[in-house]
From TrEMBL:
Protein name: GTPase Der
SMART domains recorded: AAA (SM00382)
Composition-biased stretches (Basic residues): 460-473
Keyword Lipid biosynthesis: no
Binding site for GTP 2: 183-190, 230-234, 295-298
Organism per entry: Marinobacter mobilis
Function summary: GTPase that plays an essential role in the late steps of ribosome biogenesis.
Assembly with partners or alone: Associates with the 50S ribosomal subunit.
Keyword Repeat appears in the UniProt entry: yes
Compositionally biased residues, Basic and acidic residues: 441-459
Primary gene name: der
Gene3D superfamilies reported in the protein's UniProt record: 3.30.300.20, P-loop containing nucleotide triphosphate hydrolases
Length: 473
């Protein structure tokens, strides 16, 4: 499961600055005065292939009133839901009563937290952290978030080195193909889950936000094991008001990470909206297989159906490899055939290919359309092998691969997808260039080569003089 990291501390200790460094963004506002962050902000980070979610919270002081009291409640709620808590303190200001209050609260709720001493730049880090050791935290990290010092080493210790242990644990708890059902609120996700299960397993009600948490439902169908994941609807951030709904969004993002295949449910009556595209982007960034299910197809006029199909085809032209189903979860029409798409997506995501086959496809693609020239030299792609599954990763070795244009990369992706018959899942390519064996070596000429070079240069000068004289005449 994707780790959730909550950043807590007094106002103006650098939580938003650290948030931006961890997510490699500028999503959180940063200014040199306290109380700028009032609402919680969520972001996604990635360190050495390990994805995680970060929560930036408002500052805690201990004497909150009015709006500050609501900010404090949200910050403490973030602590409850997080898997990792980072307690930030200001290394320049030293230990304060507010820091001690927050430390006492973390101890009372039994939440294991890590102490992070920020703003240690320009001074001895050990001296800056000396006052804070009395708080009794087992692990302490000394960083300068504004300059990104110490952040990478901190993440290296906090996050698991690989996803293998997490994946094996999830696979043992929920065997078979894991299918995540995602979409905006009230598009019929829970109804679809009940229809695929053949029973009223989850609550269905005509009100947005009925599902608050992700529900994992293992079952068996025609001798195959599946796990359906019913998730909460994800609305636009400006429309999210309730505290519970904000953490439901985290659960939905974690469910996408856990799934093998994701079914995005779209409301045919409302058509494709921007929030659907945002969800598609997150699924593709996670590398998960994707199926589009346009729900509430029953009772629509033929003109409206044609309009929706044209809109889906036009706006999702970049998803030509993903299956699209027009269904009615309420009446069951078109639901059963989605299992065929699920099986094809899972087989494509988990496929294993031999190196000689991938290399042969690469060479055939090059013979049909060679890579471009860069600085007078042709880019060479020598061989390919598989680097991982779910999503499939193909590693291509050659020289000058950093200069390979995006259009040629898309050409290779389309070629491999067509030949390997990959359905529904994105293919990721990694291009690696070998070291130049002649780098750093001096080109030494033999005496015979030097004589030839001098003769060629003299002959070139004579030819140039003859041409100059002929032009003057």
């Amino acid at each position: 499961m994707t780790p959730v990291i909550a950043l807590v501390g007094r106002p103006n200790v650098g939580k938003s600055t650290l948030f931006n460094q961890m997510t490699r963004s500028r999503d959180a506002l940063v200014a040199d005065f306290p109380g700028l962050t009032r609402d919680r902000k969520y972001g996604e980070g990635n360190y050495e292939g390990q994805r995680f979610i970060v929560i930036d919270t408002g500052g805690l002081t201990g004497d909150e009133e009015g709006i500050d009291l609501e900010m404090a409640r949200q910050s403490l709620q973030a602590v409850e839901e997080a898997t990792v808590v980072l307690f930030l303190v200001d290394g320049r200001a030293g230990l304060t009563a507010g820091d001690e209050m927050i430390a006492d609260h973390l101890r009372k709720i039994g939440k294991k937290a890590h102490l992070v001493v920020n703003k240690t730049d320009g001074q001895d880090p050990d001296v800056a952290a000396a006052d804070f050791y009395r708080l009794g935290f087992e692990s302490t990290y000394l960083i300068a978030a504004a300059h990104n010092r110490g952040v990478r080493s901190m993440l290296e210790e906090l996050l698991p080195p690989t996803d293998e242990d997490v994946e094996s644990d999830t696979a043992s708890r929920y065997p078979g193909i894991r299918i995540g059902i995602v979409g905006r609120p009230n598009v019929g996700k829970s109804t679809l889950v009940n229809r695929m299960l053949g029973e009223e397993r989850v609550v269905v009600y005509d009100m947005p936000g009925t599902t608050r948490d992700s529900v994992y439902i293992p079952y068996e169908r025609q001798g195959k094991e599946y796990t359906l994941i019913d998730t909460a609807g994800v609305r636009r951030r400006k429309n999210v008001r309730e505290v519970v709904e904000k953490f439901s969004i985290i659960k939905t993002l974690q469910a996408i990470e856990d799934a093998h295949v994701v079914i995005l449910v779209i409301d045919a009556r409302e058509g494709l909206v921007d929030q659907d595209l945002h969800l598609i982007g997150f699924v593709l960034d996670a590398g998960r297989s994707l199926i589009i299910a346009v729900n509430k197809w029953d009772g629509m006029d033929p003109e409206d159906r044609d309009r929706v199909k044209e809109q889906v085809q036009r706006r999702l032209d970049f998803l030509d490899y993903a299956d699209k189903h027009y269904i009615s979860a309420l009446h069951g029409s078109g639901v059963g055939v989605m299992y065929e798409s699920v099986s094809k997506c899972y087989e494509s995501a988990m496929a294993k290919w031999q190196t000689n086959r991938l290399t042969a496809i690469l060479q055939d693609a090059i013979s049909q359309h060679q890579p471009p020239m860069v600085h007078g030299r042709r880019i060479k792609l020598r061989y390919a092998h598989q680097g991982g599954s779910n999503p499939p990763i193909i590693v291509v070795h050659g020289n000058q691969t950093d200069s390979l244009p995006g259009a040629y990369k898309r050409y290779l992706e389309n070629t491999f997808r067509r030949v390997l018959k990959v359905t529904g899942t994105p293919i990721r390519f990694e291009f690696k260039s070998g070291d130049n064996p002649f780098a750093g070596k001096v080109d030494r000429l033999t005496p015979r080569q030097k004589v030839k070079k001098d003769n060629d240069m003299r002959q070139g000068r004579r030819t140039k003089k003859v041409r100059m004289k002929s032009k003057k005449r």
